């Protein structure tokens, strides 16, 4: 899977989520709006019905008042009068209610005004009728009734009320349609929105499943790669181990076999030396004895002139040969010792480091005293490691510190220790002659040395120390400037276990 | 004891052989020296054609053995000598260039009588051989098994 495709998929997923969120928001807002609108529309429908209702109630009261008045006129029965008065009392509040209810509609308000005027006229007529009846003038009352009938107040009321009711019915139809439309709209909007959300969710699920699949594939590939990598590492490690063993064997055999011819060279050089002595003795004898005379004791006759020169040259040549052989022998011995160390199995054991270092220091006390050096040992962390290897490491380093002090300056050698993340860090610092930074690598190479060559040595110590430190699973480094002293730092695992190295063998 | 001791020298390096012989002679030992430059011939001489060692029955031998031979390991020769009933009584002097402590230990375990490292320093080498001559003159080679 390319990074480009991954980015594209992530982009699509984000887009999908955004779209889903947007749709949801729109649906929610739309639904809230539409539901509100529907409720509003319904309220208006209800309102229309109420107005109609009130109008009908008003007309009914008017009829009741009229019939009450007529009944009273005919019978003068008090119950008709009471009925009429109750109806009249109900009319005014009914008019008020209708007025209040239809306040929103200007057309209806106009009708209402007409209606209230007509009703007021009618109520006055009722009042006059009732007065006449009470005063015992039914004729006048009857006349008034006729007049009222002629004036057509009642039919005006009926007409206006009818118009109003019609208007309300028109409004009712309109508003019902509106309310229905809002509801249908809200329902369809919710439906479509839900469908969209479900669709988006499905696409999302599909995308997620696809990416999960891709991830599983990638994981499987990674696992395969890991297994493969381990196999490769094992293989390489085995190769390296073999190569290392090969080098060890090679070094051992070469140095061993180089020694045999060296024994011969040295042996026969010595034989030659003896021969040379004999020859020069005879030459001396022959030179001293006159021809024909008996040879005297040749050994006592000293050589002279060119013969002496020859003898000296001969001895000098042999001397160079012998010293070179001795040097070569030392080098071969060093390689042999190094390979032998490389083959030795390490035995981890608990080491009381401070006591251990004190032991090494006391064995070097003589050299230290000669060099006027003081050795300070600070508290050191205890470790588990190979005792012999550690002894060689520390004695080499301390010995070097004593050996390469500045002449005429009392030496101060300090051994410090601390721990860090499972490692013990030891520092051996001195105030000696120091090492030029350009030689910091060189001093760890076999048979290489740095600085003034005024001390005996083969250039083996530090190479050996570093090999040991590495075999113990540690590292070592040096920091130094010329004439300011050196600090060698050794980092060793606190708990070295043989398994991680001896298992390699 | 009438039979003189014969010295069997198994040494592949002729130079070493010559140096050893010279120094033995210088120390005043005049016994017969039989030199071999490889293991196979030496084995044939010591164990005979049948490999039983019967040919050396009754012979007084002293064996100088180099461990690095071209055809076989000196350790094997030492082992076989010390396992053979006719030869095991013969003293074996191991003479080699190695001063490896493991190897020295192994040789003594196998029954070598003296282990001498050939030093490159000639004086030491000569001294070692001369002392060996001295050693030859004082040791009593035990009568071979009958």
List keywords for this structure.
heterodimer; A: 505 residues; alpha+beta; Four Helix Bundle (Hemerythrin (Met), subunit A); Helix Hairpins; Heat Shock Protein 90; 3 domains; five-stranded mixed β-sheet; two-stranded antiparallel sheet; 11 helices; 72% helix; rod-shaped; disordered C terminus; B: 146 residues; alpha/beta; five-stranded parallel β-sheet; 5 strands; 40% helix; globular
Characterise the protein shown here.
The complex is a heterodimer of chains A (505) and B (146). The two termini of chain A are 43 Å apart. The longest helix of chain A has 136 residues, at 153-288. Chain A has helices at residues 3-75, 78-101, 106-134, 138-151, 153-288, 305-343, 353-363, 365-370, 387-403, 461-471, 499-502; strands at residues 348-351, 373-377, 383-386, 411-420, 423-429, 475-480, 486-493. In chain A, β6 (475-480) and β7 (486-493) form a beta hairpin. With 505 residues, chain A is an alpha+beta fold. Chain A contains eleven helices and seven strands. In chain A, 72% of the residues lie in helices and 9% in strands. Chain A folds into three domains: 3-209, Four Helix Bundle (Hemerythrin (Met), subunit A) (Up-down Bundle); 231-341, Helix Hairpins (Orthogonal Bundle); 346-503, Heat Shock Protein 90. A five-stranded parallel beta sheet of chain B has the order 2-1-3-4-5, with helices on both faces. Helix content of chain B is 40%, strand content 16%. The mean pLDDT of chain B is 80. Chain B is α/β, with parallel strands linked by helices and 146 residues long. Classes of the chains: A alpha+beta (505), B alpha/beta (146).
* Unreliable segments of 5+ consecutive residues of chain B: none
| Superfamily (CATH H level) name of the largest domain in chain A | Aspartate receptor, ligand-binding domain
As a percent range, the share of strand residues of chain A is 5-15%
Secondary structure: number of strands of chain B: 5
Helical residue percent band of chain B? 25-40%
Please tally the β strands of chain A and state the result: 7
Number of helices of chain B: 5
Task: Report, as a whole number of angstroms, the end-to-end distance of chain B.
Answer: 15 Å
What is the oligomeric state here?
heterodimer
User: How many strands, which pairing sense, and closed or not: the largest β-sheet of chain B?
Assistant: 5 strands, parallel
Instruction: Choose one word for the global shape of chain B.
Output: globular
> Could you tell me the radius of gyration of chain A in angstroms?
64 Å
Question: Could you give the order of the helices and strands of chain B?
Answer: EHEHEHEHEH
Largest interface between protein chains, with number of residues from each side: A-B, 19 and 17 residues
Weakly predicted, low-confidence segments of chain A:
501-505
Would you tell me the overall average pLDDT of chain B? 80
The CATH topology of the largest domain in chain A comes to Four Helix Bundle (Hemerythrin (Met), subunit A)
Strand order of the largest sheet of chain B: 2-1-3-4-5
Number of domains of chain A: 3
Spell the H/E element sequence of chain A.
Answer: HHHHHHEHHEEHEEHEEH
Q: Could you say which structural class the secondary elements and strand pairing of chain A correspond to?
A: alpha+beta
């Amino acid at each position: 899977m390319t990074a480009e495709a991954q980015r594209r998929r992530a982009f699509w997923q984000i887009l999908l989520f955004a779209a889903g969120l947007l749709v949801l928001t729109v649906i929610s807002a739309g639904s809230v709006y539409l539901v509100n609108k529907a409720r509003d529309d319904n309220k208006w429908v209800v309102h229309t019905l109420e107005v109609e209702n009130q109008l009908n109630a008003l007309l009914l009261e008017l009829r009741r008042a009229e019939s009450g008045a007529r009944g009273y006129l005919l019978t003068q029965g008090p119950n008709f009068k009471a009925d009429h008065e109750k109806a009249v009392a109900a009319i005014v509040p009914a008019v008020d209610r209708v007025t209040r209810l239809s306040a929103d509609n200007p057309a209806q308000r106009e009708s209402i005004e007409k209606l209230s005027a007509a009703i007021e006229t009618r109520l006055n007529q009722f009042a006059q009728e009732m007065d006449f009846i009470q005063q015992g003038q039914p004729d006048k009352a009857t006349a008034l009734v006729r007049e009222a009938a002629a004036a057509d107040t009642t039919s005006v009321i009926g007409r206006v009320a009818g118009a109003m009711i019609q208007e309300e019915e028109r409004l009712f139809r309109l508003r019902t349609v509106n309310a229905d439309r809002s509801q249908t709209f809200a329902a369809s909007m919710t439906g479509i929105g839900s469908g969209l959300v479900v669709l988006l969710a499905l696409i999302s699920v599909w995308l997620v499943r696809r990416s999960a699949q891709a991830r599983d594939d990638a994981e499987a590939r990674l696992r395969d790669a890991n297994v493969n990598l381990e196999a490769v590492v094992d293989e390489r490690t085995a190769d390296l181990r073999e190569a290392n063993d090969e080098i060890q064997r090679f070094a051992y055999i070469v140095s061993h076999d180089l020694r045999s011819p060296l024994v011969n060279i040295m042996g026969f050089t010595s034989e030659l030396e003896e021969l040379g002595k004999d020859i020069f003795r005879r030459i001396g004898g022959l030179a001293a004895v006159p021809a024909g005379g008996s040879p005297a004791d040749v050994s006592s006759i000293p050589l002279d002139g060119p013969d002496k020169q020859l003898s000296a040259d001969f001895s000098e040549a042999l001397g160079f040969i012998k010293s070179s052989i001795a040097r070569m022998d030392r080098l071969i011995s060093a390689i042999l010792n190094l390979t032998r160390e490389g083959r030795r199995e390490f035995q981890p054991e608990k080491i009381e480091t401070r006591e251990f270092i004190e032991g090494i220091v006391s064995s070097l006390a003589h050299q230290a005293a000669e060099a006027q050096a003081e050795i300070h040992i600070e508290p050191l962390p205890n470790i588990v490691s190979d005792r012999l290897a550690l002894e060689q490491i520390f004695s080499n380093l301390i010995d070097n510190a004593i050996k390469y002090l500045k002449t005429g300056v009392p030496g101060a050698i300090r051994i410090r220790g601390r721990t860090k993340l499972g490692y013990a860090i030891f520092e051996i610092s001195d105030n000696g002659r120091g090492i030029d930074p350009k030689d910091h690598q060189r001093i760890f190479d076999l048979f290489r040395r740095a600085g003034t060559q005024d001390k005996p040595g083969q250039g083996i110590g530090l190479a050996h120390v570093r090999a040991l430190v590495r075999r113990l699973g540690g590292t070592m480094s040096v920091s130094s400037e010329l004439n300011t002293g050196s600090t060698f730092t050794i980092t060793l695992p606190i708990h070295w276990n043989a398994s991680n190295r001896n298992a390699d063998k | 004891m009438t039979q003189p001791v014969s010295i069997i020298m198994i040494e592949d390096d002729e130079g070493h052989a010559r140096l050893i012989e010279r120094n033995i002679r210088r120390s005043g030992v005049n016994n017969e020296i039989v030199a071999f430059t490889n293991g196979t011939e030496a084995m044939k001489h010591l164990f005979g054609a049948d490999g039983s060692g019967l040919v050396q029955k009754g012979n007084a031998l002293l064996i100088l053995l180099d461990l690095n031979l071209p055809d076989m390991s000196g350790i094997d020769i030492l082992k076989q000598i010390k396992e053979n009933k006719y030869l095991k009584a013969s003293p074996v002097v191991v003479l080699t260039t190695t001063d490896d402590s493991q190897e020295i230990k192994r040789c003594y375990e196998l029954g070598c009588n003296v282990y001498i490292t050939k030093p490159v320093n000639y004086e030491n080498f000569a001294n070692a051989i001369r002392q060996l001559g001295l050693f030859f003159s004082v040791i009593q080679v035990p009568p071979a098994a009958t």
